[in-house]
Amino acid sequence: MKILVTGGLGFIGSHTVVELQNEGFEVVIIDNLSNSSEEVLKGIVAITGKTPVFEKLDLREKTAVQDFFKRHSDVAGVIHFAASKAVGESVKDPLLYYENNINTLIYLLQELQQKPEAHFIFSSSCTVYGQAETMPITESAAIQPAMSPYGNTKQIGEEIIADVAKVSGIKAILLRYFNPIGSHPSTEIGELPIGVPQNLVPFITQTGIGLRKELSIYGDDYPTPDGTCVRDYIHVVDLARAHVIALQRLVNKKNLDKIETFNLGTGTGSSVLEVITAFEKASGQKLPYKIVDRREGDVISAYANTEKANNILGWKTESTLEEGIASAWKWEQKVRGK
Ligand code: UD1
Q1: 280 CB contacts (<8 Å, ≥6 apart)?
Q2: Where would I find the NAD(P)-binding domain in this sequence (predicted)?
Q3: How far is residue 214's CA from residue 142's CA, in Å, rounded to a whole number?
Q4: Are 209 and 333 in contact (CB under 8 A)?
Q5: Mean pLDDT for the stretch of residues 44-62
Q6: Which of 135, 138, 142, 207 could form a disulfide with 305 if both were Cys (CB 3.0 to 4.6 A apart)?
Q7: What average pLDDT score do residues 49-55 get?
Q8: CB-side exposure of 310: number of CA atoms within 13 Å?
Q9: Same domain, 12 and 161
């Protein structure tokens, strides 16, 4: 069965391509290489022994998308990762985010709705919950007004998919990720942030390797056990596996609804200081850091209730925070030739 993976050379996309190929799916990747590199293909081939079809294509070009689906009329499903994800950038350039994350989704769905049946897996985010009132967060928690244009694109994206599924042969699973970290155990693929990393774990590993002077912890006066923010850090391989299980659920008609939503997290909240401790243990070295002001828009705490994903999707995480951090560190060392 042929599956299109948009953004398939990115961090989560590349790990998902590996898991799809290992499960026997035929993969076609579209990526515009705006935040990834063609080199990633080599890593995918090294792990799986299979070369996915790759087309450099920008999903904002509607005619190119139409043309792609003419050439690949046998695509049975799409896992849609391609999107921009930097919160700060989205505040500065909202239209870039609406164009990249919404127009592209519309063009894809316009093609898929012409098919009698199509499977669609969407990369959503726990950002849709904002600061949830109770922890851990269940899928039925209230959706809060988005705190950034990026967050808004995820909320609007979910709504668009639900509307289209109602009137077409499209069946969709919306996956709300918590905080993906780590790299493949083979160290053939991993996270490759361009420029200064905005996310915690790549900033930590780049500091550990000497690329950054020190980590700035954004606030230690939050109402949490140690004062730093709490998140749910999930190993990217666990996350990738969930996509394959979600796709198989649609293919095997096990879905209970045309639209289903699952949280993808570990269920455990970890503070910034706990992540640092895990890094220090994995690397055997101290991490230089300082406490600075809070970052605007950060929620205090967010971790997943995993019951629905465990019991209904039939998936659960296997790796610990320590394993995630250790693999991220191994990857950083490899990338920097150390
Ligand atoms: C962020 C986005 C989220 C998005 C996700 C995508 C914000 C507020 N949230 O999640 O909407 O879906 O990225 O990847 O931007 N931290 C530091 N120092 C740093 C970096 C981070 O202390 O240099 C702290 C943050 O305050 C936070 C935690 O580390 O408490 C995790 O931060 P990050 O990796 O940016 O993830 P989120 O903020 O959870």
Answers
A1: 286, 287
A2: 4-326
A3: 37
A4: yes
A5: 98
A6: 138
A7: 98
A8: 11
A9: yes
Pocket of ligand 1 (CB under 6 A): 85, 87, 125, 127, 151, 179, 198-200, 203, 215-218, 229, 231, 272, 295, 297-298
**For this structure, is 150 an active site residue?**
yes
Within a domain: residue 27? yes
Residues 160 and 273 in one domain: no
In 3-state terms, the chain is what percent helix, strand and coil (to 5)? 40, 20, 40
For residue 154, pLDDT beyond 90 = yes
Q: Which of 219, 247, 264 is the last residue of a domain?
A: 264
Nearest to 282 by CA among 235, 323, 332: 323
What DSSP string runs through 101-150?
A: IIIHHHHHHHHHTTSS-EEEEEEEEGGGG-S-SSSSBPTTSPPPPPSSHH
Centroid of ligand 1 to alpha carbon of 283 (angstroms): 22
209 and 241 inside one domain: no
Average pLDDT, the chain: 97
The residue whose CA is least distant from atom 25 of ligand 1 is 218
**Active-site annotation holder among 107, 129, 150, 222:** 150
Task: Report the nearest-CA residue for atom 20 of ligand 1.
Answer: 200
Q: Residue 131 CB: number of other CB atoms within 10 A?
A: 11
Asked if residue 225 has pLDDT above 90, the reply is yes
Give me the number of domains the chain comprises: 2
Percent of the chain with pLDDT over 70: 100
**Angle CA 269–273–277, to nearest 5:** 100
Q: What pLDDT, on the 0 to 100 scale, is given for residue 338? A: 87
Q: Whose CA is nearest to atom 27 of ligand 1?
A: 229
Domain hosting residue 162, numbered range = 2-180+233-264
- pLDDT, residue 121, reads 98
Q: How far is the CA of 265 from the centre of ligand 1 (A)?
A: 15
